[in-house]
Amino acid sequence: MGRLYLIQLDGRIYSCKHCRSHLANSDELLSRSFHCRHGKAYLFNNVVNVSVGPQEDRMMTTGRHTVADIFCNCCQQLVGWKYELAYEKREKYKEGKFILERAKMIDGDGSDFYLDTHQVGSDADDE
């Protein structure tokens, strides 16, 4: 097996809750108004230290999308997904973007995010 090289980010960062590997810089944050089956989720333009799983079609609250789960490179925990394809024109802005689940990350000062118990529209897996 080869060595694992992880990218270290500067500034305010979001890290994996399980192993503290850096996942994204706050400058890459596009939206905090997404949801997943575990609660809130954030949309990012770019993330680091993740591997992308196989693509699959999922029906979400905003329509059908082709997505791929993303996993932390260090601990292999599922941390979110990548939007590969949006079938509806109004959802095309998501293509190539990443969702990180809030319950799976901590912010730059090491504090956990709280979990909301309700959802208010946006994407969530209906599975």
TrEMBL record:
This is Protein yippee-like. Residues 12-109 form the Yippee domain. The keyword Zinc applies. Transmembrane segments: none annotated. Keywords: Metal-binding, Zinc. It comes from Sphagnum jensenii. Pfam families: Yippee-Mis18. Belongs to the yippee family. The keyword Zinc applies. InterPro entries: Yippee (IPR034751), Yippee/Mis18/Cereblon (IPR004910), Yippee_fam (IPR039058). Signal peptide: none annotated.
